[in-house]
Hints:
The structure holds two protein chains of two kinds. Chain A is of the alpha+beta class. Helices cover 55% and strands 10% of the residues of chain A.
Amino acid sequence: MKFVLDAEQRLFGETLDKLLAGAGTPGAVRAWAAGQPGPGLALWRSLAGAGVFALAVPESAGGAGPLPVELVTAFHELGRHAAPGPLAETVAAAVLLDRLGGGTAARGSPGSRGPGTAGSGEDRDRGLAGSAAGWLPRIAEGGAVVSLALPPAVPYALDADVADLVLVVDGDELREAAPGTAMTSLDPARRLFPVTAGAVLASGPQVRRAAAAACDMGALACAAQSVGVGRRLLEVTVEYAAARRQFGRPIGEFQAVKHHLAGVLVDLEYARPLVHGAALSYGSPDFPREVSAAKAAASEAAYAAARIALQVHGAIGYTDEYDASLWIRKARALYSAWGSPAGHRARVIASLTTG
Amino acid sequence: MDLDLSSVEPFRAEVRDWLRAHVPDPPLPSLETEEGFAAHRAWESELAGAGLSVVSWPGRYGGRDATPLEWLVFEEEYYAAGAPGRVSQNGINLLAPTLFRHGTPEQLDRVLPPMASGEEIWAQAWSEPGAGSDLAALRATATRTDGGWLLNGQKTWSSRAAFADRGFGLFRSDHEAGRHRGLTYVMFALEAEGVTRRPIGRIDGKPAFAELFLDDVFVADRDVIGAPGEGWKVAMSTAGNERGLTLRSPGRFLAAADRLLALWRERADPADTALRDRVAEVWIKARAYRLKGFETISRTEDVGAEASINKIFWSELDVALHETALDLLGPDGELDGDWLEGYVFSLAGPIYAGTNEIQRNVVAERVLGLPRDRS
Lengths: 355, 375
């Protein structure tokens, strides 16, 4: 097992870093929050071009995956650059559709219903197999932005208004969903929508299992994204502390500031191996527990990074205008997304004491 | 580097089987007592007889050339089996790595085998009354004499020195040189003429460390490690061992976290979600430390100052783990027993091997690159 990234994986991360740094991502985030998804969708296509979404789609459906280690490498960078959009949601949807595609859960005949007709309200009794086969390649190539609600952990569909496909799992049923009125999140780049369930796409216990698998993958992606968010906050805060002068010296000389930042690094440095370890355990029975451990630690580390970033920046960090706010808000929002740390810790204990 | 975990399974099984047959039951008395110290020394000898006392060392010194992965596996099995604490730890984990890097072949041949067998137990002699976190302020001296050096001064908080055989530490050999220069790294016998040791009761009264008074203690040239005057560099080149994986391997925390989980099952009120949350947090951190350990041995570059990140993490994990256990025990938490012994031991973690405040300075300045304090 490779507990560190190999040269190719590192290069992939660096490539995404450059791509996101060169794409004016903070501007795209702010536009996204303002309801102008153009730049964000362009970024989405660039990320797809770099192979990000293909990582979650099996080769048989036009992807390159599942490649969980590459996926967390990508999501780390997406977090570092605060990339907007239903990223974890699309990845989770790929898992969900893949698990149900061609399975016995499919209702009706594997029809010709393809991408582009979602939400049209037609062909309600067509089977999932056909539609899954159509959607997965589109996700892989960046032609489909997908959002979903997986209550209770994921009650609202992120950015459902720009999604090409919105799904909701309700118990044993997978349904198409229609977004309601947007709600306001602490992170304005996270546009959350309640959903109204529509046509049933699949039903049966398989849906429940597929939804659980999708939830694990979404939580893993979110964990990796969170570590990236925390890492960026640490980077900008270290930079700020070295430059900002008070009492005739950089505030980074003060031990109170140093110790705060060292603590952030410690938390992040021990969250990262959990995320990597969870990705390595993909396919094993321990995967759900490993994901929960990773998500809990990553959320805590990223949130602590946000609190310290805010404190060390002082008043400027408390402003909307200063870009650190993009990450400070996201850290808190992601903390509760895809299951709270306390919920994931409870799942770890449940798994250890019943397993 | 690709770690093949399945390839070490035969080694794991061998270690597990041997430990299952040999780990003392009931456990040995506390190693911080005279009786317990002797019992732990005998255990080291039994371990050495099986070739398991220093698995990562070369065979000629008593080891079996284990890879870092095998060493991690050995540690996992060792602590999972509830085997005794390592009374020889100062020697095998701190002095030995220094000797491997800076020692002469003669020193390796002479010092390592009795260290591996438990015949010679080593104590640290770093701190002084005026030099704790600020180690470079040390004042104990080494003065040139015929064929060696004369040591004078006082050392304190010397772990294991109450019952150990030999000590190692830094002494000022050149007063003209700067604070970090003119220090010499020496090994000396605690039974030598001129050494007076006064055991110090740790917070629970057990004599875990001692004060050493040195009055013209002779040390031969062959007991100087590295060049005279280069002691700081020699000591710091392996400081990462004390702060890093070597001193506190993941196995120890994995085993303790599993015992905590067993205690939770046995004692906890399932409705007490606050305690459940803490048990989970500790278990996750022990797991994180294991994965970080695999990551560390997979890397080719020296971890350097990053060892300080490690030290902060494991020392705080150890305290949190034992605090959680005591809380699970409720009113029994204050009673003498393994958990309390572990708790008392854990409390020293954030202090020894460089306080966690010093480690945070190191992390902030040398890993994050924050400006040095100019005051």
